[in-house]
Protein 1
Amino acid sequence: MRRMNRGVFGPLVAVAIVAGAACGSSNEAASGAPVGSGADAGDPVTAAVNAGRPSSVRLCYTAASQAHPARASFWVALRSNDKAARAKVIEDLEKAATDLPNEEEIALLNGLAHLWRLAEPLAAEANDVGITVQSASRAQAELERAYTLCPTDHRIPAWLGPVLINGGRAMGNGQMVADGFAVLQRGIDHYPSFVLFSKLLAYANEPATSEDFQKALEAVNANIGYCTEPASAQDPACTNTFQAAHNFEGSMVFLGDVYAKAQKKSEALGFYNQAKGASTFASWQWGSLLEERIQTLDSRVAAHGTASTTDDLSAAWQSTFQCSICHQQ
C-alpha cells in the first residue's frame, strides 16, 4: 500500500495502495537499471533490493536475473501498456524460466506476465478459452515456484493467494480456496503493508452488506494503517516506484470504489480527489476515468445500496485496466 490521506478520517497523510496486487511490481532502482542481489546479505546490491522492507522479507534476486533481457522486456511492455508485445514477452520469459530454473525473479515475472494477460486480455485473448486456461495454470505454477525458490519473498502471497482463492471458487475446489487463504495470511503475517490489500480481491465482489465484504473493508483500513506508520515511510509497498509510476492515483480509484460500495460517499470522494494532488497526476493516462468516477459517484453509491446488483457500476477490481491504471507510465 502507498501513503495517503484517509480523507475525513484524520490528518493529511500521503498514502497509496499497491494495486499491483492485481498484477505486481518488483523492486529495482529508480532509474530502471538492474540492481541485482547477491547471496551475501551485506552486498550493497542486495541491500538496495530489500531496503525499507520488514526484516523478515528478503527477495532472492540475482545479477543474472536482473540482467536478463526478458526481464527488461517485461517492464517495458507493462509500463507502456503494450499488450501487443505481451505474447512475445511471455514467450521470452518462458524460455528464460527454462534456461534459469533457479531464478526467483524470472519465475515471478513469468507468473505476473500471465496474470497480466488474465487481468487485461486483448479482445482475441478474452475469447480464447485455451489462452485463458493456459495463463491461469502458468500464473499459479510460476508464482508457486517463485515462492518455493524464495520463501522469504512474502510479497508473492499478494498474487498467489487470490489466484488460488478465485481459481478454487471457480472450480468448486474448497481445499484450493483454503490453501489460498492460508498463503494470503502467511504473507499478511510477514508483510502486511504489501499483502493486506489483496484481501480486497478475495471479498470485494460479495454483497456490500455482507460479513465477507466487511472483511475486505477492514483489510483495506488495516493496510492504510500500516502505511501511515512512520516505520513504513521507506517501505517500497508504501511509496511510488519505477515499476508503478502512478500507484498513488490508481490506488485512489480502488479505494474510492471500495468506499462507494460500502455506502461511504464522503470518504470515497475524498480518495478520488486525493489522486488529483499527486505530483505525477498531470502525466497519468487515466484522469478522465477519475473524473467520470467523481461525476457518477451518487449513482455508484445508490446502485450499491440496492439489493439488485444488475445496475452496479463496474469497480476497479472488476475492470480490464486494473494493472495499467497504476503501472502505465
Note: The CA atoms of residues 203 and 212 lie 6 Å apart.
Protein 2
Amino acid sequence: MTQPVIPNLILAQRVVDKMAKQAAKFVHDETGEAMVGVMLPAAHPNGAPTIIAIDTLPADESEVVRQAYAFAHGGESQFEAFTWLLENWEADGDSRKGTPVPVEAKLAHIGDWHKQPGHMIAPSGGDLQSALALLADNPQIEQWLAPIVTLDHAPTLSGGAGVNYLTTPDGQGGLTRIDFWLIDRQTRAFRPVSPTVYPDAKLPALQPLPWTLTNEGRVSIEVGQLEHEGWLVSDIVFWDTDLAMPLEVCFMLGKPGAESLWVVATPHDYPASPPRAYRAPFVALGKDEDIYDLFARVWKQCEPVLNPAGWEWSDELYLTDYLAALTTESPAPAASKAADDKKEDVP
C-alpha cells in the first residue's frame, strides 16, 4: 500500500515562541497546548497537502494533568476558546486576503504539542496509543500533528533543511528543540515532517480571547448581579454588532412580563472598553431554534439606546450599573445603529 504523501508544514513564528516559552515553565513535568491552523489540499494531483499552524491554544488548567512522564489536557474552556476563534475566523475572511491562507480555508484543531522529559525527541508508546484513540474517536480527522519539545540542548545543535526539528535559544546558553511528527489514519504510525517557519506578518492572526474566557470570575459576578436585579439572562452569543473585528460578547436580557428585550454587547476587552445597549420587541424562541437563531431575529429589530447626558463608563462599573443608568433616565432609542446596513445579511 502506498503511504500518504508527507505534507508541507508551515508555522507562524508566534507558534514556535509560545511552545518554547510554555515548555520552559515546566522543567520537571510535561506540558503542552492545542495547535490551531488550517489543512490545505494539494494544489495539483501529484503535489503535497499543506498544514499551516497559526497559533496555539492553552489547556483548561482545571482539567490539566501534569506529571514527569504524562500530560493530558482539554476541557470546556478550551472548547469555548476554539468556538470563539472559529466564529471570528468565519466572520473575517477578508483578513486572509494576500496571505498563503485562502479566504475559504477552515480553521481547525490540527494537533497538540507537548514537552517530554530529558531528550526524548520521539513520541512514546503512550503517545501512539493516545493518537490512535483520537483517530478512532474522530473519523473526520485524517492526520494529526504531534510536535515534541525538549529542553537544555547543547548550543552546538542545529537544525536545517530536510530535518524534522528546529531549535531556538532558551535564554540560558542552551537550546530548546522542537521535533515535528505526524500520524495519519492510513499508516497509523508517527512519521517525521520538516517544518518551515514564516514571520507572523506573513500569516493571518487569530483574534484575542474575550473577557468571558480570560476573566471567568467577572462573568459569574456580572450574571449573578443581573439575576439578583430580576433580569433573565440568555446564554452568551458572539456577534458582529459594529462591523469591526473581533466579535462582541452579547447577552439578551428581559424582565418577566416585559414587552421588550435588551441586548447588551460587550467588547472583547470589557470592562476596559464600554458596553453598548439595544432594545427590541419581545421575541419568543421558535420551535427547533437555537440561541443564535433567536438572536438573529432579535437583532433585526434592535435599536441602539443612547447613554444619559453626561454619563460615562468606568471599568469599575458593572452591567447592572449601566442598565440602571439607562432605565432610570428612560433614554430614547437612537435613530439607527452602526450595523443597520448589515441587517439584511444576518445569517
Note: The longest strand covers residues 32-40.
Protein 3
Amino acid sequence: MKKLLILLMSLFLLVPYVSAEQPISVYIDGKQQTYNQPPVLENGSTLVPLRGIFESLGANVEWNGTTQTVTATKESTTVILRIGSNQPTVNGQTKTISTPAQIINSSTMVPLRFVSEALGSDVNWNGTTRSITIISTGKNYDVVLNFPASKYPETAAHIKNAIENGESPICTVDRDGADDNRDESLKGIPTKEGYDRDEFPMAMCAEGGEGADIAYVESSDNRGSGSWVGNQLEDYPNGTRVLFVIDGNVNGTTQPVTPTIPTNPVPTTPSKPTIELTKDDYNCSDFKTQAEAQSVFEESLRIFGKDVYRLDNDGDKRVCESLK
C-alpha cells in the first residue's frame, strides 16, 4: 500500500502544471472593449483587431487586400501598417516595432500600444490584472488608481457603469468642494435602509456635484471603498488628476435610484390690481390693501418718473407696509 502511494505521488509530480492565464481586458476612456477575436499577447506586445481599436479611437480605416496594408487616418495623422512588416509609417516617417501586424483566426490584428500612441492616445498596462487602459485624449492625468473589484464589488460595478454612461474616469482632487458637491449630487435622492447613496465622480472630485451618477450601494461595501480611496489619495494635493481603473472582473450589482420629485405647488405671484390715478394726491388711508397702494406707487413711477404722492417714506420702494 505504501509503495502504491509513493508511485501515485511520483506520477502526480510528473504531470506538467498548466495555468489558465486571465484574458486581457482593454479599456478605452474607461469603457471596456469587446472583440470577436480576443486580444493576443505576443513577444511582449498586445495585438487587437484592427477595426475595433482604430474606430474606437476615432480613426477612419481602409484595408487593401491586395497589398495587405492597413491605412488609418485621424485628423492630421495617417498610420500605415502592412501584414508581416515591422516597419509601419506615421505621416510618412518609418517606425520600427517588435511585433508586426498579422492575421490570427481570419482577423487582422495590430499592435495596440503602437497604434494608440501613434494616434495621440495614452496607454497604461497593468500586468497583475492583465488590463490595458487607453485615454484617447492623451495623458491628461497624474496618477493611476487601480480600484480592487474583488474587495468592493458593488462600488466597482457602480464606477464601471457610471463611466460607461459617460462620466469621466478622471477625478481631479478637490477636497475643499466635497461638501458642496455631495449636497448637489444627492439633492432629491431619498435614503434607503441598509444602503448608501454612492456618487461617481466622487464628492472629493472637481468633476463631482450636480449631475453625478448615483446608485444605492450596500453600506459596508461603500464605506469600505470610501475609506480605501481616501487612504490611497491622502498624500496627493488638491488638483491631482487621478485616473480610476477597475482591477479585476466586476461581478457586483447596484440598486437603481429614483429621485424624489417635489409635490408642493410652486407659489405664484399674485397679479397686481389695475388702478387709475384719479386723484391729485394719495395717502395710505385711501387703500384697502398694500397691493393697491403699491400699484399706485409703481404707476406714478412709470408715468412721472418719481414718487409724486410721497408714499415711499423710507425709500425702500415698498409703500404703506402697515396694510396687509
Note: The chain is about 25% helix and 25% strand.
Protein 4
Amino acid sequence: MRHDIAHITRKLAAALAVTTALSFTTAAAADGGINAGSDANATSRSVHPGAELSLRRQIVIDQDTIRLSDLFDGQINAAAGITADTVVAYAPEPGRRAIFDAEWLARLAHRLRLNWRPATRLDRVVAERASTLVNGDTVRDTIARELAERGFGEEFDIELSNHNLMIHIDSSLPGTVGIASLSVDPSSERFNAIITVPAGDPRAKRLTVAGRMFAMLNVPVPVTTLRPGETIRADDIIWKPVRARLVRDNTVTDTDDLIDMEPRRALRQDTPVRRADLRRPQSVSKGDVVTMLYQTSTMTLSATGLAEGSGTDGDIIRVRNRQTKLVIDARITGPDRVEVLMLPQLAANQGANQGTPQ
C-alpha cells in the first residue's frame, strides 16, 4: 500500500515539474515577443518619422539622372545612406518623357524604406526631359548656305524629305547645325547630307537628311486679290520668288505686262498671273448705249444700239439696233463706240440716220 502511495507521489511531482517548465517557457516566449515588437517599432520609428512625403506628379528634368528629390517633396527619411540626392533612375532622352507608375514607386519606397506609400493605383510621376529644339527650318537654312558656298547660287528652295523634322538635344547645348558631308545630283535636284547637332561639338548627334533643291525665279504677283473691273496699278504688284519649274510660257514675268491691265477673273494674292487672265480695261460694258458706225471711202452711216456684251478695244461684241431691234456684230473702237462689220446689218436703219459723203 505504501508502495502505491509513493509511486503516485512521484508522478504528481514529475507532472508539477513539467507544468512549471512549460509555464516558464511560455512566459519567456511572450516576453521575447514583446521585446521583439518593441525593437521593430523602434526601428520603424527610426526609418519613418515625421509626415509622409508628397509625390511630385509632373517634373521637368535637365540632367541625365533622376534623384529622390525629383520625385518627392518633403523631408526624406529612408534606409541608411539614402539621401535626397540619391539617384534612382535614368532620365528620358531630351525632348521625351517617362512615366513612373504606382507599382514602380511602391517598390522603390519599399526597397529604400521611404516614408511614403501610394494612396491609389493612379499615383504616378510624369518626367519630361528639357531640351534645345532644332527644327527643319534651321536645317534647311544651313544646307542652303552650304549650297551657296559651293557655287549653286542663293536662289534655291530646299525641301526636306522629312517635313516634320525636329531634333532634341541637351538643354545646355546650343541649337546650331553643322554639315559633315553633302552630295548633290543636279540632274534630279536631289541631295543627301550628314548633319551634326550642335555644330563642332564632339558630343554632337549625327543624322542623315535628304531632300530636293528647287531653282527659284522672281515673278510679279498681286499684293492682294484683284477682281474684274479693277485696273492694275504699280502698287498692286510685288515681286515674289517661285520655283522656276512652275513658271510656264504664259506666265507674266514683267510688270509692264500687268500695269494698266484688267483681270478677266479674280487674281489671287501672291500667285503668278497667266497672260490669258488679263485684258485691257473695258471700253464697253454690257447694257451701255453705243454709237454704231459703218464707214467706207465714200460715206459714213451711224446709228445707236445697246451693247449685249462687254469688251475692250478690238473685241467683237453683239449690239442690238435700238430702232430696228436687229442684233449685229461690231468691233469696239473706243469708249462706247463700235464699228459695224457688215453693211447689210445697218442698211435697214439707213433711212433713219444721216449719211455723210466722203
Note: Helices lie at 2-47, 68-71, 102-112, 136-149, 343-347.
